[in-house]
């Protein structure tokens, strides 16, 4: 087992996780900031055991909570004299203001979510009862939260700043719901659960856009919901699954058509790459979405690029 993460020895905002003994750590850590949230992916390549020492009060960072979830392999979260032994997609909470450790098996891959205390809309004294307690991730809101955390890196890659803020709000709503459920302080938030499910649906669809046969039925089966519920979730967003798939495919095509002419594939190749098997139908859809046929869009993009390059190569003398 390897002690992988602990809070920093100096106050930072938000606190980013570091290794207990980085000079003896064999693995890697990748972090992602999403508003007030910090998501870290930690991979351990060897089997060791190190425990994080107790830190003095002068080293305590601003109060945050940390949620840990193994995705592959197992880990153990320790705090307040308790141990939570986690299987893949189980969750455990700990408080960064108090000493804690996370131990992981050789080859373990896990995700951690760090967020400020004020983001939890739950009594602090009750939340303290949840630290280093195993939260099973197989069913209910914890399962949705686990799937959402696992999909965050790919979901964030293509989002705007505004969308990232909304995504962070959705994640925090889901965290609040999962913990409230554990405390018995109220039912899970159905809106947060629905948003998390939408993210799972969109993540699956995004990974399979190149499949011309991708359908709402495929997405529903992948996330284990009925086709009727899938339609309900997308209706709540003011769209349908089919429209969302088409819009994402068109956006990928538009992006590929902006490539320099010498490296650009044929328009028909771009269309086929993103699941459009009928070139004429693709051209019509593209024109409806962007106001001109794809070839004209490519030509205008190339002309604009050449003008910019010419202006850079031959600046006007003052």
Helix content: 40-55%
According to DSSP, the number of beta strands is: 9
Terminal CA distance: 67 Å
- Sheet/helix structural class: alpha+beta
Query: What is the averaged pLDDT score?
Result: 78
Radius of gyration: 24 Å
In N-to-C order, the SSE pattern is EEEEEEEEEHHHHHHHHHH
Name of the CATH architecture of the largest domain: Sandwich
Number of helices: 10
* CATH-derived topology of the largest domain: Jelly Rolls
Strand content: 15-25%
- Shape type: elongated
Major beta sheet summary:
5 strands, antiparallel
Major β-sheet strand ordering: 2-3-9-4-7
* CATH class call of the largest domain: Mainly Beta
Spans where pLDDT lies below 50 across 5 or more residues: 1-25, 47-60
**Overall tally of domains:** 3
CATH superfamily of the largest domain: Jelly Rolls
Keywords: DNA-binding, Transcription, Transcription regulation
Domain HTH araC/xylS-type: 199-300
InterPro entries: AraC-bd_2, AraC_XylS_family_regulators, Homeodomain-like_sf, HTH_AraC, Tscrpt_reg_AraC-type_HTH
Organism: Catenulispora yoronensis
